[in-house]
C-alpha cells in the first residue's frame, strides 16, 4: 500500500509539473531562429554581418548591422519564407551612408548579387567596379562560357549602361576547386529567386509570386507576353539551388489605346 501511495504521489507531481510548463511553447520559435542562422543565405552571403534573429509566436524581429544595404532585404526575404514565420520586423541597420538608388555603389552590389545567385557563375566571385553606370569586371572564371555569361548578366542588371569585361580564364593547376553544395534550404532558394528577379532589367518591374517546395519553384503573377514569361523561367532556372520551375504566370497583354 505504501509503495502504491508513493507511486500515486509521484505521478501526480509529474502531472502538476507538466501542467505548469507550456507544452513546446518555445520550440517553434527556437526552430525559426535556428533555421535562420543555419540557412544557406545567412551562412554564405550574410556571414560577415552582425544579425540577431528573435522570434516570438512566429513574429520575427531582425536587429543588428549589415555591411551592405542590399543585405537587409536579403535577410528579410530569407526569414519571411521560413516555416512558421507569420511576419518580420526588419530593424537591421546599414552602418554607413546608404547608397542612392542606381548610384554606382548600389549598381555594383546588384551586379554582384545577380552573378552570385547564378548556379554556373557564383563560384567565380568577380570584382565589380561601376563608374557612371559602366561596370568594370575583373577576376578569373573557369572557362569561356562563364566569361561571356558573366558579362551578359551584368549587362541585364537594371541601371547598368555598359560593361567592360577584363576577366580572364584561369589556368587549371592542381586539384579542381570545390563546387558549392547542391542542396540548400527552400527559404534561401526563394530569397535568391526574388532578389535575382529584382536585379534584372527584364523582370524588375514584374509582380511575381514565388513559392519553393524541396527546390521546385512555383511562379505566379502576370507577364505581358509569352517571351517575357519564358525569360522569367530562364532566369529562375539558372539560380543556384533550383531543381525545377513551374511557371503559372498568366499572360496579360497591355491594352492598346
Descriptive tags:
257 residues; Histidine-containing Protein, Chain: A; 8 helices; globular
Structural account:
This protein has 257 residues and is an alpha/beta fold. α4 crosses α7. A hairpin with a 2-residue loop joins β1 (50-56) and β2. It contains 8 helices and 13 strands. The relative contact order is 0.10. The strands form 4 sheets. Strands 1, 2, 3 and 4 form a 4-stranded mixed β-sheet that branches. Strands 10, 11, 12 and 13 form a 4-stranded mixed β-sheet that branches. Residues 8-26 have low confidence and may be disordered. The protein folds into 3 domains: 27-94, Histidine-containing Protein, Chain: A (2-Layer Sandwich); 104-169, Histidine-containing Protein, Chain: A (2-Layer Sandwich); 186-251, Histidine-containing Protein, Chain: A (2-Layer Sandwich).
Instruction: Give the terminus-to-terminus CA distance.
Output: 93 Å
CATH architecture of the largest domain: 2-Layer Sandwich
Strand content: 15-25%
Q: Indicate the percent of residues in helices.
A: 25-40%
| CATH topology name of the largest domain | Histidine-containing Protein, Chain: A
CATH domain class of the largest domain: Alpha Beta
Global morphology: globular
Average pLDDT taken over every residue: 84
Number of domains: 3
According to DSSP, the number of beta strands is 13
Main beta-sheet annotation: 4 strands, mixed
Spell the H/E element sequence: HHHEEHEEHEEEHEEHEEHEE
Amino acid at each position: 500500500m505504501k509503495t502504491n501511495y508513493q507511486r500515486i504521489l509521484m505521478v501526480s507531481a509529474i502531472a502538476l509539473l507538466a501542467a505548469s510548463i507550456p507544452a513546446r511553447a518555445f520550440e517553434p520559435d527556437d526552430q525559426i531562429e535556428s533555421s535562420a542562422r543555419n540557412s544557406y543565405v545567412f551562412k554564405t552571403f550574410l556571414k560577415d554581418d552582425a544579425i540577431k534573429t528573435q522570434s516570438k509566436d512566429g513574429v520575427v524581429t531582425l536587429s543588428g548591422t549589415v555591411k551592405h544595404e542590399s543585405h537587409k532585404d536579403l535577410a528579410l526575404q530569407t526569414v519571411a519564407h521560413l516555416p512558421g514565420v507569420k511576419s518580420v520586423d526588419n530593424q537591421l541597420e546599414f552602418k554607413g551612408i546608404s547608397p542612392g538608388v542606381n548610384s554606382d555603389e548600389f549598381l555594383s552590389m546588384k551586379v554582384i548579387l545577380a552573378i552570385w545567385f547564378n548556379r554556373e557563375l557564383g563560384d567565380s566571385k568577380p570584382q565589380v567596379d561601376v563608374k557612371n553606370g559602366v561596370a568594370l569586371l575583373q577576376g578569373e572564371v573557369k572557362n569561356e562560357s562563364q566569361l561571356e555569361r558573366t558579362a551578359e548578366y551584368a549587362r541585364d542588371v537594371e541601371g547598368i549602361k555598359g560593361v567592360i569585361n577584363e576577366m580572364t580564364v584561369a589556368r587549371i593547376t592542381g586539384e579542381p576547386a570545390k563546387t558549392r553544395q547542391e542542396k540548400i534550404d527552400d527559404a534561401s532558394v526563394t530569397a535568391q529567386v526574388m532578389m535575382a528577379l529584382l536585379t534584372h532589367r527584364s523582370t524588375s518591374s514584374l509582380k511575381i509570386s514565388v513559392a519553393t517546395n524541396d527546390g521546385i519553384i512555383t511562379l505566379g503573377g502576370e507577364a505581358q507576353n509569352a517571351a517575357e514569361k519564358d525569360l522569367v523561367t530562364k532566369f529562375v532556372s539558372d539560380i543556384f539551388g533550383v531543381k525545377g520551375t513551374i511557371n503559372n504566370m498568366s499572360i496579360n497583354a497591355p491594352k492598346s489605346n
